[in-house]
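Let us begin with a simple case.
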Amino acid sequence: MIEGGYSEDTPAAIVYKATWPEQKVLRCTVGTLEQTAREADVTKTALIVVGEVLDGTYERSKLYDPTFTTEFRQASCSKKELGQTGENQSTEMRQEAEGQSK
């Protein structure tokens, strides 16, 4: 990955057995991916996620956002009703993922 242009400090995560009861989310960096996988004995059945998406500094996709209206679908609630903004949602998603890794 480093040869492909990612810096060693780029955020990364190993999602071991995603959606299984024994799922683990191992947060690391591109520079520590190999060591993290080795220490957790992850050799297969893992998804590797790399990039700033792991920082929580992104806006959630509108595809499933219940507050987003398109010409084909009406929003099912307002942001006020939901009590969240896109930023809050991404922060909560990141916190949920971090909670699963503990």
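The second case is a distinct protein. As before, the sequence precedes its structure tokens.
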Amino acid sequence: MEKMINLRNLRIEANKTLEEVASEIHVTAGALSHYEQGEREPNKQILINLAKYYKVSTDYLLDYTFEKEQTLKKQITSLSRTELLELLNKIMDLLLLVERKENK
């Protein structure tokens, strides 16, 4: 059984604790931790609940590459012009930080 890397990353990106997410999808924090670590596989309904909670596909949670790319494209194309510009500005800021670190 593989770790559900995307599941853990989504939780961290959302700045949520195991307990907060577990409460929302109606499982224990321990169960959620087991899913993230690949020690257990969530059943179909829990997988659907997780996908709905994070607004991603179940394929993305299972790390199917093609679906992950399609999900990202869908998320980006749904952004408004203002949101896209904000995202690009954040990316540029991050690139500048990386460049500064490399030049030290």
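The domain at 5-63 is CATH 1.10.260.40 (434 Repressor (Amino-terminal Domain)). The CA atoms of residues 91 and 97 lie 10 Å apart.
Keep these points in mind for the review questions at the end of the chapter.
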